[in-house]
Amino acid sequence: MLKFSFVLLFLTIPFLGSDVYYGVPLWAYASIGFTVLYALALVYLIEKKWNTLKGKHE
Amino acid sequence: MNDSALLSEGGTWFLVLYLASLILIGFAGKFASKEESMKDFYLGGSSFGVGILFLTMYATQYSGNSLIGFAGSAYRNGWFFLVGVTFMIAVVGGYLLYAPKLYALSKKHNFITIGDYINLRYTHQLLTYLIVAIAILALSNYMLTNLKAIGYIMEYVTGGGIGFTEGIIFMSLIMVIYETLGGMRSVAWTDAIQGVLLFIGVIIIFSVVMIHYGSLDENTALFLQNRPQLFADITLANQITWLSVVILIFFGISVYPQAIQRIYSAKNEHTLRRSLSLMVVMPLLTTLPLIIIAIIGSAHFPDLDKTSSEQIILLMLSKLTAIEGMSIVITIFVAAAIAAIMSTVDSAMLAIASLFTQDIYHKKNPNASQKKLTYVGKVFSWAIMAFMVVLAINLPSTIWWLIQIKLEILVQIAPAIMLGVHFKHIDAKSILYGLLVGISITLLFLLSPALPSKPFGFHAGVLGLLCNFATVYIHHKFKR
Fold first, then answer.
1. Is the dihedral of CA B144, B146, B149, B155 positive or negative?
2. Domain coordinates of chain B in residue numbers?
3. Residue A9 to residue B86, Cβ atoms within 8 A
4. Which residues of A touch B234 (CB under 8 A)?
5. Among partner residues B101, B217, B223, which is closest to A54 by beta-carbon distance?
6. B217 lies within 8 A of chain A by CB
């Protein structure tokens, strides 16, 4: 999931066209959409995978 | 009351009461302290629950720049500054690379500063001193920019009634008083108030702008007429800049010493996790509304220069003063801006004092009592604040650009922390060489007139970080 979160973060880079829908360019919808997905992935990691991230410490 | 003052008389009194309450909180922090020890003073006894921990993290991460600078950037760069939302969330992603392990280690070994961890992990004095020095340098820059900002704001909102210099001195005195009274407790409690003010301020202003200036959809025609560049096609250069900014902030802001101090100060793992979860959501509720406000403002006030664009929100609100209750909204905005700046400066000052006391003074005076160390830390707080105030007032603008590079230098300590907690075989020399290579390459590109400050479109600090990681890997792989 941590690796997947990096993919989502990478996908926030603008890559669509600039056609305007409701005052916002198309690429902005994609970027903010992937940003929200990235945020959800982080919340999932924090709440469900904390112990995996922590691992065994010395 | 000065005629050109932005704050009404009532607004000024609100501000005075707010500032007075911070001193009272300082006393409350002092009375709540349990012992005269570094841990109690600099980590609040590691007793913060979700409410306080989340709010102090939030208020500390969102500086005056987040409220004023972000709006200015969104005004100038339009939708492209949506990257602001992404990178503020990415900061939490950066924490996740090391915080779960570092928190457990901090409880086991009673860490107070980042230097404590570096010292334990690498047992290399030069590396520890170098990282502490970089941290202090970055934090000093942070203090300096925010002190200057608070001077300008005080002068602006009082119509010159309080001058730039007086504003800086007055606000610095308040901060250093409540900090030395109650340490981290006072700072975190005042951060809590400042965080609430900041959040409420943004939501109220967003609502007011939506009602009186219209939604994004309603402003489409105005956008196309006044700011058609908002809808220009994205170029490869834009995409590279986006990636570079996200990398720089992912690795840079997540290793800010004051952020690490807050991770240490969590009462338990549950409070830390819940606070981080809430931090993930806040950019969508704080940064995004600010960007939308500024973009709408850019359609209504299209020809502002860089300096004026930083005041876009105030400009938008000041045009609505005929509407009843608007003076209250302006007061809330000013209070939120001041709160955002103060919460950043006090946290940076506390972190600098703890780094100096724990990682430099304590190392030179290993037998010093906890009471003595706390006292030295307090004296140092006053000294560093006085020094910063003098610099903020007198620093010539010709060398001002130097302080803008703080993040590109600070980001070079990320491998020491993030690789250090996960890979126990990486030794101090690999990290040290990586750090030196990273800093050298960053400074080479930033300072050499013959080289671009953004090689291949990336920030010099990002290229430096890449070389830093590569050096650590190569040295680790090929050492005997």
1. negative
2. 9-397
3. yes
4. 14-16, 18, 27
5. B101
6. yes
How far apart are the C-alpha atoms of B230 and B187, rounded to whole Å? 40
Number of Cβ within 10 Å of residue B217's Cβ equals 11
The packing angle between helices A2-11 and B236-252, to 10°, is 140
Closest CA of chain B from A46, distance in Å:
6
Q: What residues of A are in contact with residue B247 (Cβ under 8 Å)?
A: none
* Chain B interface, best mutation among A36, A46, A48, A54, by max B CB count within 10 A: A46
Q: Which residue of B has its CA nearest to A47?
A: B273
**Tens of pLDDT, residue by residue, chain B (480 residues):** 455 667 777 778 888 888 888 888 888 888 888 777 888 888 888 888 899 999 989 988 877 677 777 888 888 888 889 999 999 999 999 999 999 999 999 999 989 899 999 999 999 989 999 999 999 988 888 888 888 888 888 888 887 788 889 989 989 999 999 889 888 888 888 888 888 888 888 898 899 889 888 888 888 888 888 888 778 888 899 899 999 999 999 999 999 998 999 999 999 999 999 999 999 999 999 999 999 999 999 888 888 887 788 788 888 887 887 777 777 888 888 887 888 788 888 888 889 999 999 889 988 888 888 889 999 989 999 999 999 999 888 876 554 555 567 889 999 999 999 999 988 889 999 999 999 999 999 999 988 888 888 888 899 999 999 999 999 999 998 876
Inform me whether the C-beta atom of residue A56 falls under 8 Å from chain B C-beta atoms. Answer: no
Contacts of B125-128 spanning 24+ positions with Cβ under 8 A = B125/B363, B126/B432, B127/B416, B127/B428, B127/B431, B127/B432, B127/B435, B128/B359
Residues of B with Cβ-Cβ distance to A24 under 8 angstroms = 79, 216
Let me know if domain B9-397 sits in CATH 1.10.579.10.
no
